[in-house]
């Protein structure tokens, strides 16, 4: 017996399981989708060739065991994976003389919903296919799930919970820390659906799209899956987009779907073809892993051959320097591509990338440019010994089983992105559209060396308009936002400077205490600072230390020459509010949000804190009887709990 295939099968099983654990349980990727599919197909071919299937083979598993704290529940019938193909002809042959429904294979988290007596009774995740997690409370927080429906019998349906690309981008924009940003909508959706706090789920804008009906007692669907989907739509469900196809029309419809991929706001990783004839599809039965009434279609990634020009090294604010492959432009999925991230040194070494190598490139899921293979493998050049931004020494470190390159200079401009992001944030200078990613690009290009340079970008029109993702319109929008941001307040400026411990509320108190005069603040004594409400010894010493550095004084003077500071808003002090500390929690009705309520409290001399303590005077919560931790703490400490109505009465009477 030839043992080589067996050894290869063991090797492939370990590699693929390791990749699956990283992807599904740790929300990280250690190989591309293209590489995973290639190795999976190789393993399945060896199993067919040898007639042996090893224990733990990913071809026999439907997922991994759950690791969350949510309640678990066994599914009434196993939720199987789908067999797949990348060949349209194979898909058409499989359909034969039947008609089918071709739909998006959505990239999120599969959820099973149960309705009883017209009300959502239960929601369970797919889990490992046998056992899922109960997420009923979170499902009720989805954006588009009907809580009640006209049908009053027992209804069980399956669908995909997803987060749209636009919502994903918005959520990431609101996260200042680069390393804390989410990697992709699928991972964010999975974490959002499985939260222990449904309030977090609601904030993530999760949507549900039904793709199959399991049971609806007493309803005649005329033996048609399409009729089931239409009926679900009539009950108020959003149904996955599909088109009815035959063997003859299938190829053209696949092409139509391919044209919609880059335009769609919903993440998908292929298509699903489902037999429309319910009885015929069920008569086909199932294998241990796959049902036979449906087939998944994975995009056959369009590969283009090109020449590697060079490796560009892109520093980040964490000090990590990422390799980016720059190659001769090629057309992929209808767009021109000339760059692809290589992610880390380990991948770079494995590909043996060198200048002038012939490489093949593709777009993962028709979206993200990736290198598929290096055809000539001339060998990787040594990584740079100096940071391309600051010139500081670099070093190679081992991180999560991979080698990465870091800049060791703590003063590297690339590491200052966080401070610049604070400076342009909404509560600081509020430069609309100046994202952290944009700041990184400008810093890497040497356009920004201090916060003042953000207001001098007009001088770099030619450079910026030639950057990837920028043009004349985006340049005009950004510079106009910077011009508007020049009219600001001392309170915003103080917060934007990033002095340790100084938040937006401290900025407002300091501005009021010194009459909006920056010179008085810059030359204030320790005693004067300690007299400012909310400024203790630690904060006072921090302010003195910050303005005590010559580089900071120069920056302040530079900014004051550029900015126009408005006088601070007068405080209409009310005796019942003066010096009182409020905490706001729960949903607000009369105020648009907590910031608006906070501004009102501060305008009459009060303060707002984030948590209840012995220093809190009032807790504002419309649900006075709530069992929340803040309510419990307030009751323990004897702190009055006010509804908004109570607060507004107090405001009018004060």
Compose a concise summary of this entry.
This protein is of the alpha+beta class. It folds into six domains: 4-50, Helix Hairpins (Orthogonal Bundle), CATH 1.10.287; 72-297, D-amino Acid Aminotransferase, Chain A, domain 1, CATH 3.30.470.30; 304-407, OB fold (Dihydrolipoamide Acetyltransferase, E2P) (Beta Barrel), CATH 2.40.50.140; 413-485, Orthogonal Bundle (DNA polymerase, domain 1); 488-566, 5' to 3' exonuclease, C-terminal subdomain (DNA polymerase, domain 1, Orthogonal Bundle), CATH 1.10.150.20; 581-653, BRCT domain (Rossmann fold). It has 24 helices and 24 strands.
How would you describe the overall organization of this protein?
This protein is α+β, with helices and mostly antiparallel strands and 654 residues long. It has six domains: 4-50, Orthogonal Bundle (Helix Hairpins), CATH 1.10.287; 72-297, D-amino Acid Aminotransferase, Chain A, domain 1; 304-407, Nucleic acid-binding proteins (OB fold (Dihydrolipoamide Acetyltransferase, E2P)); 413-485, 5' to 3' exonuclease, C-terminal subdomain (DNA polymerase, domain 1); 488-566, DNA polymerase, domain 1 (Orthogonal Bundle); 581-653, Rossmann fold. Helices cover 34% and strands 21% of the residues. The protein is built from 24 helices and 24 strands. The strands form six sheets. Strands 12, 13, 14, 15, 16, 17 and 18 form a seven-stranded antiparallel β-sheet that branches. Strand 4 (109-116) and strand 5 form a beta hairpin. Helix 1 (4-25) packs antiparallel against helix 2 (33-50), helix 12 packs across helix 13 (436-444) and helix 16 (490-496) crosses helix 17 (504-513). The protein starts with a helix and ends with a helix.
